[in-house]
Each structure stands twice: as C-alpha cells, then as structure tokens.
Queue: 3 jobs
Job 1
Amino acid sequence: MPAAVFEFNSVIVREPSPSVVDGLRAEDRGSPTYEGVKAEHDAYVEAMRGADANVTVLPPLASFPDSIFVEDPALVFTEGAILLRPGAPTRVKEVEEIAPTLRDLFDVVLELPAGFADGGDVLTTAQGVMIGLSARTDRAGAEALQANIEKLGRKSEIVATPEGVLHFKTDCSLLDEETILATNRLARSGIFKAFRQMIIPEGEEPAANALRVNDVVMVGSDFPRTMEMLDKAGYKVVPLKTTEIGKIDAGLSCMSLRWFSDKM
C-alpha cells in the first residue's frame, strides 16, 4: 500500500551559512541574524527526527545565501527527483550544488528543460500535484514540470497563485489527505473545492505554510490562534520558531526536501 502524501522517512536539509542574512526578501521586515536562523534550523532538524524521519544534513554554501531553502531547486517523490530551475537569478546555480546528492539517493533524476519553477510553488496532495504560477514559476516552467511529473507516473494541474504572493505554498499547506490549510485569499479562488478547508485566522496569514510530517503538524510558534484551531481539530501540533526565516520570505516547508523512500 503506498504511503500517504504526508508520510516521510527521508529528509534533506542544508545548514545555513552566515551569508543567510543577505537572503532575498520581497519586503523589508528587518534583517535576520545568523545565530537566530541557525537556532530555528537546528530546532527544525530535531523536529524532523522527532517525527521519525531520517535527515541528511548538507553543508552550508556561503556563495548562496538562500541555499538553506532546499525545497526550491528540486522536487522529490518516492518514484524519483526533479531538478528545477529557480525563478530568482541568484538561486539558479543552487541546482548544480544539490544535484549530486539527489543522484546518489534516487535512481531517477529528471531535469527541467525550459522555463522557471520553484518547489515552493508545488503542493502534493492525494489527488495529484498542484503547481502554482507565481513570480518565481512561469507557464513554460510549470508545463515542463508537468511533463516530468507525468514521467514519474503522477498527475498534476497548474493553478493560479494570488497576486502579490511569493509562492503558492506561502498561502497553503496539506493537513491530511482531505484537508488543506489556507489563507482566506487563496481559499476564495475556489481551487481547493475538492478538499475540506481550514482557514487561517485573520492576521496570522504566514501560518498557512505549515508542514505535516507523519503524525505531526509543524506550525510557526508566532501564530497562537492557528495552533489552537489545529489542536482543537485533533491535529498533533509541534510549534517551531519562524521569526528569523520569516524575515527572508521563508516558512517551514522551504527548509527541507521530504519523501518516502521504499529503499529503507
């Protein structure tokens, strides 16, 4: 029986470099400190291990401030990995850095031949893979990604990301096979009509980038009403600090590549 879409036994992360303080940001919310990002990342790795995932920790890359966010240059499934083409010019060469690790861990590694696509725009659900068009993922990249996903035997669809939202998963995450956590602005689009939806309380929109790993839901600890809502709904909530990474447009899903390996 195939694993549920939130069941993972394998995770890749990358240690932050001191250069992370120069990471990209759409708006100035102040600069993070390296020590703060490192502490949040360390807690994140421990939470992954606490959720029974085997974590591969890659070394920091000083030349690439955003390389801690390994979800954007690649996409991973049980069936194989796909090397993506990040939409930010400063991140394009991160693909070359992570490719050898993926080739070691996967029998099948595909490449994106055209366009641009970030992993932060990709949500895997039980119904298929949703690819959100955004400032970082264009139509050519999304269509090329669809073709690769099909080669891996999976279905996908291209959807719209609300105007002004950096990544599709900035505004949504998977809670279980039937339930999506979403901001009100994304829920209004109607793209999740096939799912049960839980709507983020007003003012806590960044909490939408939560992360279900096995039996726990990791949530930014700065968002108490979201955590209370999920707890009351019966989810096992693990709060994690995201204050520093939030200053460079990041959330919980950004910091890892996650899959269920049938080789373990």
Note: DSSP finds six helices and 15 strands in the chain.
Job 2
Amino acid sequence: MSQQDEQPPRVVIRDKRRIDPTSGAARVPAEQEPISARPAQGDPRETVPEQGEQMSEQFSETPADLVDEPVGGVVVDDATRQLAERTEDLQRVTAEYANYRRRVERDRVLVVDQAAERFAGQLFPIVDDIERARDHGDLTGAFKVVADRVLGLLEGLGVEAFGAPGDPFDPALHEAVLHDTSPEVSEPTATTVLRPGFRRGDRVLRTAMVGVTDPESPAPAAAEPASADAPADEQPGAGPAAG
C-alpha cells in the first residue's frame, strides 16, 4: 500500500461569509464571481473557519421541531401555542384568586357581625336597667356617666333602639303582651312600650315588648220601626177594606 493511500480524506470548508473579517469589504458571491477569479483546488484562499464559525453554520438551518405547523388553516408555531396555554392558566388562576378573596372577605364580615351582635346582646339587660333608672329619676352623677358610655358602645356597634308609643303594630318588630280596644285608633297600635327593641341595620336583634290597642268594631245598625203615619193598607197584616 502506497503512502498516498494511507492519508486521510481531505475535508474542505468554504468560507461563505459575505463580509471579509479582515478588510471589512463586501465579498462577491461565488456564483457571481468570474471563473478566472475563483480559487482552484487546493488554493490557499480556501481558509478554514474557526470553531465558532463552524457552529454558526451548523445551526443556520431551522430545526425540525421549530417548523411552523398549520392548525385550522392558520400557521401556529410552538411558542405561540405555549403562550396561549400559559395565558389560559394565568386567567384561570387569577379568577380562582379573585373568588378566594371575595369568599374570605365575606367570611370576615360575617364573623365581625356575629361578634358585634353577641356583644350587643350582653348589653341589653344593662340598657333596660338604665332606662328604668331614667324613668325613676335615678340616672344622675357617676351612674349617668357610666350609662352614657354603655349607650355609646351600642351606638358605636351600629345598634339602635326602636319602639315608641303610637307606632303601628308590626309582628316582625313587636311582641304583643297586652290587648285592649279603643275608638281613638284606626289600626292596631302599640300604645304601651314595656321593653324597647334593638336592631342593627335590617337585622332585628330583639323585638319590642308592647301593649296593643285595637280599634273598636262598629255596632250593627238597628232595624227602623214602621212609621205610625203610614196608611193602614200599607201596614203589614192589614186586609182590604169592606165595601
């Protein structure tokens, strides 16, 4: 075997860059270059590019997994599809978080309302004692200061009292314990308030204990007697006169 046969096959790499890296001048493509100006086989102008240039030529071609795929007549690449999926995931997570915040806020308000109502219910007996002391004229001095603070607590919780003499009777607001009738009223009326009621907003915390006065029923009209001046033949039971 000769020495020429033992030599490895020769690899030729052509420099296809359009800008000369040394001079910075534009190069003429090989197909447009005159035949006489083209380098011959083994010409030293055929330079071997560096490793970075070889890598750039290797990745110049588009990989098969990045080729656009037609979906429903529209070309959608993998990046666009992934973006749409991530957008849907983000919208779903955002909606779930918004629902969670609303649920937590609703539960927080409910807990606060329940605590306020329980605390107000414990103050109602004290308020009843304060009102009885006020009616007897004993709400004076230091006791009046304490009473005002207790009533201020109820006002701060948004609790208001209701039930006054003369209010129309409402079964949802009043608890009737006394009944009487009077011609002075035209509808059931709470004329006596034995215990005030309390409510917070639209929620009734305690009904008012009242005495109710109903209007009197009108007496039935009596039948009018027969007039004495009426003719005898017109009176009931009168027969025809004799001829």
Note: Strands lie at 69-71, 74-76, 159-162, 167-168, 174-182, 189-195, 197-200, 203-206, 208-215.
Job 3
Amino acid sequence: MTSISYVQQQRITRLCVRCGLLLMQYGAESAVVVDLSKRLGLALGMNSVECSLNFNAITLTTIRNERCITTTRDTINQSINVNLLVQIQQIVNKTEAVTDNHNNNNNNNKLNHELTDRTILAFDELDKTIYPTWLVGLFVGTSCAAFAYLNGGSLSITAVTFIAGMVAMFTRIYLSKHHFNPFITVIVTAFIASLIGATTYYFDIGNNADIAVASSVLLLVPSFPLINSLSDILKGYVNIGVGRAVFTYMLTLSACVGIVMALVLLRIQHWGF
C-alpha cells in the first residue's frame, strides 16, 4: 500500500472540503455534496471519506491507514450557479479517470502529488463568470411581463409589470452585492416591486391591476431552494432539509411583508378581491 504523508493528507482533506463547500454555497443538494466530496477523496488515495452537513457548515474527515484528519468549514450563501456545479462534477470525473488509468503505476506516490496539484489548479481556475446585471434584470422583467400577459393582462399591465420586475431585480442584485441580510433584501425587493406594480391601482391603469401586483414579485419565489429542501428530506438528510425549508419559508414570509407594506402605503385594501 502506497504511503501518503500527513502533510499530503492535509492537502487532500482541504481540497475535499473545498469541493463540498463550493457545492453547498452554489445550490447543490446534500446528496451531491456528500457524493462528490467522497469520490474526490477516494480518487486521491484516501481509504475513506466521511462527510457531515449542517445548514451553514460542513464537517469532513479523511482516513488513510487508520490516520484521521477532520476539518470544519462555515458556508456562506451565494447565488445559485448550475454552471459551477457542473464544472466541479467534471473535475471529480477527470480525477477519477486519471486514477483508474494509473492503478498499475509503480510510482503512485509521485502520481498522487501531481494529481492533487492538478486538481487544486482546476479548482483555482473555476469559471465563476455570471451574466451582466442589466441582462439579468432585462430577462427577469420580461418573464414577469410574460406571466402577466398570459394571465390576461392588457399591454399596459404587461408594461408596468416589466418595469416592476426589472427594477426589483436590479434592487435585489444591488443589495446582495452589498451583503445585506437576505430577509431584508427580499422585503425591500418585494416592497419596490409591489409599489411599482400597485401604481396600476393608484392611476387606474389597464384591465386588471391584481395581475400586475402578483406578477411583479414572481422573481422572489424560492423554487430552487424549496426543491432542494424536499429532495434532502426524501434522501435522508432531514436536518439540513428542514433547515433549508425553514429558510425558504422565511424568504416567502419576507416577500409577503414587503408586499403588504407597499399596499398599506398606497392605501390599497381590496387587492385580490
């Protein structure tokens, strides 16, 4: 059995927890986080990799020749980035492929160092490029407007919804970049979207003002986190699944608070009736 030094095992441990941390931060479900972190550690020569997840932390242990190294990292919520998740999965697949192709190599210790270096470099070079703010706002506004139009809104209602959705998305991105509390961000975003959408009541615009108000806040529907929370619970990761579900419900409640604040400010009491 090839010997791996303590320092080398430390590097592999840090790399595995980095893999799991990035997956958690950018929206992967718990089963994927655990699976890819374990596969990466095994591909780099560990006998076993154990991974435990909490809502805001990850704990990972690597075992090699009865020697254990454990590390814990806090997670910071980031915007969902499926492209980044795919890149990480590809890195793990390539690392496993290299290991499988060199199983009979006599210089496994040197190979392990080189493979670890290449994998670390691959993580350093992850493409974290995101779409420009103006483009995201434009498409979010268009999607909200399309929903309003499909639900019977007139062109004027559709136009107001487009403006409300676009401005709300710009606001959400701005607040997120400045690290505001996510619940405060949702409240402010919902307030601005509803305030603009509710002008259809105030100025008697279009055929159905309710559609504008309802459609302008669609960008705040936490569909991806809600699906992840349900998936985690069904796959046995109950603790983190419940944590994600509570976080999702709090985001929904925050959106409701923002909507009500806007309607109260404009003294609109008959929304939805």
Note: The longest strand covers residues 57-64.
